[in-house]
UniProtKB/TrEMBL annotation:
One of its GO terms (molecular function) is zinc ion binding. Residues 687-719 are annotated as: Disordered. Residues 704-719 have a biased composition (Basic residues). This is SWIM-type domain-containing protein. It comes from the Eukaryota. Pfam families: SWIM. Residues 687-703 have a biased composition (Low complexity). Keywords: Metal-binding, Zinc, Zinc-finger. Residues 548-606 form the SWIM-type domain.
Length: 719
């Protein structure tokens, strides 16, 4: 095979198959006689098809993960070679590069060891596979990708096949006829066991997963049945106590689960205890759903009942449900301590996706270090009312006996919150509120002790920051309710003061629950799990209520009636409709939750006259009005205000157009072109200008246009 020294001499290949692998390509030696790589050149938009084809290797079925990645922007290089990258990604077989199988001991990848009479079973995760390749999106020709295959064989450092049907020791003694159980099948099986699904159903799904790799076989069914039964027994008998001492136990867990810990600081005289947990799957979800989107927090969970409070970072998935992507266990929320683990978390995400960026950060605690969040994430900060609303409503129902009093107290508190934009004297309104309900001693004692000293801080945060919508608030509350149900079960009350128990519950039951929810939704399997997951938030439950089931009080707008969808003879009464502080008499609302009836009524009221707008819309309106009112004369401040306002409105219009459009190509074609200055010459030639085609274009390849003596070049806005 001859060695070529220029990318231009490498033939471009585009196999006709929908999915293709390395065996379908002709490989070329690229480089010099002393150092060269085996490469192939394909269209960049066929990279995913190549990766899927490589994952479907019959001899070694696997998946590839991004081990490292880097990006450049067009125009960042003044001089470059023809093989310089615009995007660089190193894909590694998911059975490597680490090898946790040496010695056959208890492994960080799993918390158990199968007790067979023969030697220990091989581990159920990393096997030290060295198969990996690099995908370079070429800087000079962005429509093309250069694939550099460093190691095509699925072998370990010793040169032996380490997974798949050809690995005779894949699962253990006598298991040479079936392939290795991949992480996805194992996680699926473990999740079903944790959720209490019957063993017969678990075995059926487990066998279906294995048969995707090795076909139907009686031996497969027999060994799979043994595996599921043993795994179920191991999980049932497993314990969180690796040591009687809690600190020693958590150190052992950290040592065995290094890949799931992104930050750890042990207790000392000067430093508090901090443990940041994020599994590889959570990292993938944070990169996927957090990029150019909103990241939220559920802060200070279990302050009174847990040994260390729990802080959760969440993203909103494809259905806008809150998905936990990191847990931080600590008692300290001081600025230096928060800065440590936040930077470690962001560095971890950007080590995989260098361009990862957040568009907004949603908090639920007015005492949060807002300046720190702005500095680290470089994005706007939003505030959610769900924690305030939930705390007030729960204590009103608990401490006020009369239903009419409960309605009026909740409405008056809502009026005080709504008055933050009206110029009303908050102190006077609070004094009048406490005088009017002075006979409600139990609630007033709670309110004066827990809220009155810090209420001005909370109202100031609501006034100064954009408020979150009901949908996102409902999603955060749904996560909080699920977390509380998992952790504060009566059977675990004796373990609440142990950190190892909390870590065990988070990384097993709760993690498995969310993993199975996402898997069921994306694979369209486990229909019962999928339906329950979709309807886990009050927003999605409200969408199932038809408009005709809601009747409004047209005269005084005091209440609304919602007919129950389960029992048409039952009607729920919603007082103070159109407000975030609406009061419903259903059992879910009486527990302090945002119920579907309130959400549905507010959906209808937002489009009707006579009802006040939502607080999220009101705060957004105040931002725009503040920009409009800011200039006091015909000065530069007016220019700046108009520029900011028009930029914001332009972005909103484009988002609305994109959301309502059924054809992305039409939206792209209507976008104006962006002009950039011409860069200097290089020793190869002038940087080429590339005009990106819309995704829906009939042409399958991007066009690279070489021009001479042009002072400017045009790039698509999507670049």
């Amino acid at each position: 095979m001859a060695i070529v020294e220029s990318v231009g001499k490498i033939p471009l290949q585009d196999p006709p198959e929908e999915e293709f692998s390395a065996s379908d390509l002709t490989w070329t030696k690229f480089g010099t006689a002393e150092h060269h790589d085996v490469v192939a050149l394909i269209p960049y938009d066929r990279v995913d098809a190549f990766i899927i084809g490589e994952c479907s290797n019959v001899e070694c079925p696997t998946r590839f993960h991004i081990e490292r990645g880097r990006k450049r922007t067009i125009g960042s290089l003044k001089e470059y070679k023809d093989d310089e990258y615009l995007e660089y990604r190193l894909y590694w077989c998911s059975f490597g590069p680490e090898n946790y199988g040496e010695g056959g001991g208890i492994l960080p990848s799993r918390r158990y060891r199968l007790n067979t009479r023969n030697r220990a079973a091989r581990p159920q995760s990393m096997r030290g596979c060295t198969c990996h390749f690099v995908v370079k999106r070429l800087y000079a020709r962005p429509s093309l990708a250069l694939i550099i295959y460093n190691e095509r064989r699925h072998i370990n450092k010793s040169g032996f096949i380490c997974h798949g049907p050809l690995d005779r020791d894949a699962i253990g003694p006598g298991a040479k006829r079936i392939p290795y159980i991949c992480n996805e099948i194992q996680q699926q099986t473990m999740s079903m066991i944790y959720l209490g699904i019957p063993e017969e159903n678990i075995l059926e799904k487990h066998i279906e997963g294995i048969q995707r790799y090795c076909g139907s076989d009686a031996k497969v069914s027999s060994l799979a049945s043994q595996y599921v039964h043993k795994l179920g027994m191991i999980i049932k008998r497993s314990t969180h106590e690796l040591d009687l001492d809690d600190q020693a136990s958590i150190r052992m867990w950290i040592e065995r689960n290094r890949k799931s810990v992104f930050f750890h600081q042990d207790t000392s005289e000067s430093d508090p205890f901090i443990l940041g947990i994020q599994t590889e799957w959570q990292l993938q979800q944070m990169i996927r759903f957090g990029h150019r989107s909103v990241v939220a927090t559920d802060s200070s969970f279990g302050v009174k009942r847990l040994k260390y409070p729990l802080f959760t970072l969440l993203v909103f998935d494809s259905r806008q449900h809150a998905l936990p992507v990191a847990w931080v266990i600590t008692r300290s929320f001081a600025k230096p301590d928060v800065s440590k683990w936040l930077k470690a978390l962001i560095d971890r995400a950007r080590s995989v996706e260098p361009g990862w960026k957040v568009s907004g950060f949603l908090i639920d605690d007015a005492a949060a270090e807002i300046d720190l969040l702005r500095d680290i994430f470089c994005c706007p900060v939003l505030f959610s009312l769900w924690r305030v609303r939930r705390s007030w409503l729960r204590n009103i129902v608990k401490k006020c006996c009369n239903v009419e009093v409960q309605r009026e107290v909740f409405k008056r508190l809502g009026t005080i919150v709504y008055s933050i934009w009206g110029g009303t004297n908050t102190s006077h309104a609070l004094e009048q509120f406490m005088l009017d309900f002075v006979d409600q001693t139990a609630f007033m004692d709670y309110f004066k002790t827990s809220w009155l000293p810090k209420l001005e801080m909370w109202l100031s945060t609501m006034r100064n920051f954009q408020l979150a919508s009901q949908e996102s608030s409902g999603a955060l509350e749904a996560y909080h309710v699920k977390l509380k149900a998992k952790l504060f079960d009566d059977s675990h009350l004796g373990a609440l003061q142990r950190v190892d128990w909390l870590v065990h519950k988070l990384t097993t039951e709760l993690h498995s629950s969310y993993w199975l929810d996402r898997y069921a939704d994306e694979s369209d399997s486990f229909q019962n799990v999928k339906e329950k997951y979709i309807l886990s938030t009050s927003w999605h439950r409200a969408l199932l209520i038809p408009d005709y089931a809601v009747t409004l009080d047209d005269r005084e707008h005091l209440f609304a009636k919602v007919v129950s969808q389960r029992d048409s003879s039952l009607t729920h009464l919603v007082w103070n409709p159109g407000s975030e502080f609406a009061f419903c008499d259903c059992s879910w609302s009486m527990q302090g939750n945002l119920c579907k009836h309130v959400v549905k009524v507010n959906m209808i009221c937002e489009n009707l006259k006579g009802y006040q707008p939502s607080m999220s819309f009101r705060s957004f309106e105040e931002v725009l009005m503040d920009l409009w009112r800011k200039p006091v004369d015909d000065s530069f401040a007016l220019d700046l205000s108009l520029a900011c306002t028009h930029q914001m409105l332009d972005q909103i219009q484009k988002l609305v157009e994109l959301n309502n459009s059924t054809d992305i190509g039409t939206v792209v074609n209507n976008m104006p072109l962006k002009w950039v200055s011409k860069k200097g010459r290089t020793y190869i030639g002038k940087p080429s200008s590339s005009l990106a085609l819309p995704h829906g274009s009939s042409s399958t390849k991007s066009v690279v246009v070489h021009k001479k003596n042009r002072k400017r070049k045009r790039l698509s806005r999507l670049r």
